[in-house]
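Teaching soon. Got one?

===
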Amino acid sequence: MFSCSEEQLREPETRFPNDGDPALNEWIKENFTDPYNIQVVYAWKTAGSDLGVDLVPPKLGVIQPFLKIVMKVWGQPYVKTSPEGAIFLKKSTLREFRLFGKDHSFAAATADNGYRITMYGVDGFTPSTLGKYSKAMLIYFFHTVHHEYGHILNQMYNYDPEFIKISGPDYKADFNAYPRYQALSWGFVSNYAMSAPGEDFVEVLSIYVTSTIAEWNALLEEARAADERVRIETGEVRQGRDRIMRKQAAVDKYMRQIYEIDIDTLRYHVINAINEVVDGNIEIN
């Protein structure tokens, strides 16, 4: 038997108060809320969070550098590409970024309700011992952020239903059960793209804008090889490379016609920003 004293029962220490750090809050207001109408939630709040996973708020010292990289690799490319500039982001329905330090899921980010993107694993987003950020980490993370923002764009204005006909009945609920070459041969840029037409559309967009020209062409060549492998193994002609090219053209048309965004220009700014961050420049410009 034992008892707890009042000292033992005191409130546990937190990384920072629930209303956050005043200096950081002012920086967020000047760099996110005032120019783009985007709130950033980083202090501990459970409302709107997934309580089914183990989450903690991010470390205070990581947040501002992380947000600079978010704006540099995600936001500024849209600002630089759109004829509307900063107004493009301000007009979109994205209204909130929610940040978590660690989690035990495999998601880098999720979007919900057409106005919020939640980002996980922010504590791991720190420079390496060489003082640089990992290019692979940046591409993985911002492929996911651009993917989720693609959903928000689609919720504002839906894509042409003709896009769905490109792969027709080949969407798979058990998409992870297939090897990558099978997905490519059916015309999907990733296994996850097979899960649903909406996921397919934003996977094409997000992989395209986070891939160099050489990397995208290598993916098309991989799809061509997958087509040939399936033809040899089964005799079936799937034309996966052609399907991917048709999907990329559909995404390009949608972004141009609906948002006046040239995805080649957008990609140029995204890749340039990633390279700058890798070189140690995280400043927003």
